[in-house]
Amino acid sequence: MTATDSAKHQKSKALKPGSRRPAKELCSECGLCDTYYIHYVKESCAFLTQHIAELEAEIHGRSRNLDNPDDWYFGVSQNMMAARKKEPIEGAQWTGIVSTIAIEMLEKGIVEGVVCVQNTKEDRFQPMPIIAKTREEILAAKVNKPTLSPNLSVLEQIEKSGMKRLLVIGVGCQIQALRTVEKKLGLEKLYVLGTPCVDNVSRAGLQKFLDTTSRSPETVMSYEFMQDFNVHFKHEDGSTEKVPFFGLNTKELKDVFAPSCLSCFDYVNSLADLVVGYMGAPFGWQWIVVRNDTGQEMLDLVTDQLNTQPVMSQGNRKEAVQQSIPAYEKGVTLPMWAAKLMGVFIERIGPKGLEYARFSIDSHFTRNYLYVKRNYPEKLEAHVPEYAKRIVGQYKLPEVYSNPK
Ligand code: FAD
Ligand code: SF4
Ligand code: SF4
């Protein structure tokens, strides 16, 4: 960061809470505009300027190889594996690999703080981003807040605190903005630990999803769209409720996802050093993508606490994806008995491991491509990255008519 940057920061002012953001209804509330880094919003915001390939080259030393379909799907990577903690952290989203890496980095003095997101006292799903400086603060941020979260709203505190080594945990849209302003933060080293992310919602949208889908919305602690084609809701009493994907009320839920997330093509968090999700791994395991040497350095800190196995891939997703496209467009909802039957059938013969991840990416990218084409036709060409165009290009899409917002 130069003296000129510092002066610019002094002059810029965060937007007031609740005021309209530069990306308008496409804003994913990443938090950048809650800080004086709004000065850089035009080039940083994932919904105003899409420049993933350029940032990949800067951060990982190369952008996706467009001749390699694995790169289209999973981004730049050095290594992938399935892993789970030998001793899982109770109450974590999966086995707590993310929280464990953050704790090791802090306690070994590799970083001075960790940007992560806790929830407010009043509402377990209301995100509250913090810079954690203790193990307890990191653990209090475990488990997904399945809502848009302004993680970058704490960026001003970094420059003010004089911190030089930082770990940021976040999802794709947050990380794209972060990477664009990285050099303006005054850090010596930034580490980025990402999770995949899809179908996120506002707090109000989340309530509608829970009310429409769960038998007991008020006791839901967390949920996940699992590889067995069911949504698993974990309840306060320790029980798990399973609702088949194919039984979801698509018509009711069509508007529930945030416009940002219906326009998002960075499911796999392309710009993180290390990504920890689940969808490329067998059921019960987490999926790890190491994108660069920094990511490997982060993973090495916890390998003695993990069981690992190589990634696998089984089945063929293409037919199922092709059939789901018009069904989603028409808002088809199956009766629950048929949805359960279909879930069991697909789980038996359906895509597994990396092929399941491809299934999920294909289904979401085709849906999102049609959403952008319909609502933001003028943005389509520049906003959809080349790798996503190649993914979508494998399918026959229905004709949609533009209805610009
Ligand atoms: P934990 O140790 O429980 O830590 C979770 C970390 O996530 C915490 O550090 C917290 O700061 C951070 N976090 C929580 N909520 C948010 C948020 N809203 N924004 C930014 N950071 C947050 N993985 C897949 O493979 N496929 C998916 O489709 C998928 N969808 C996801 C959708 C959302 C909205 C989110 C937040 C994550 C999604 N993930 C997905 C990632 C996955 O659910 C787990 O978060 C990941 O595997 C880490 O699990 P863990 O037990 O190691 O995390
Ligand atoms: Fe600002 Fe982030 Fe919203 Fe873009 S997504 S307008 S950078 S808060
Ligand atoms: Fe951001 Fe995309 Fe996740 Fe929405 S789906 S919160 S836009 S990374």
Automatic annotation (TrEMBL):
Domain Coenzyme F420 hydrogenase/dehydrogenase beta subunit N-terminal residue range list: 80-156
Limits of the Coenzyme F420 hydrogenase/dehydrogenase beta subunit C-terminal domain: 164-310
Coiled coil: none
Pfam families on file: FrhB_FdhB_C, FrhB_FdhB_N
InterPro entries per record: Co_F420_Hydgase/DH_bsu_N, FRHB/FDHB/HCAR-like, FrhB_FdhB_C
Domain of life: Bacteria
GO-annotated molecular function: oxidoreductase activity, acting on CH or CH2 groups, with an iron-sulfur protein as acceptor
Protein name: Coenzyme F420 hydrogenase
Phylogenetic classification of the source organism: Bacteria, Bacillati, Cyanobacteriota, Cyanophyceae, Oscillatoriophycideae
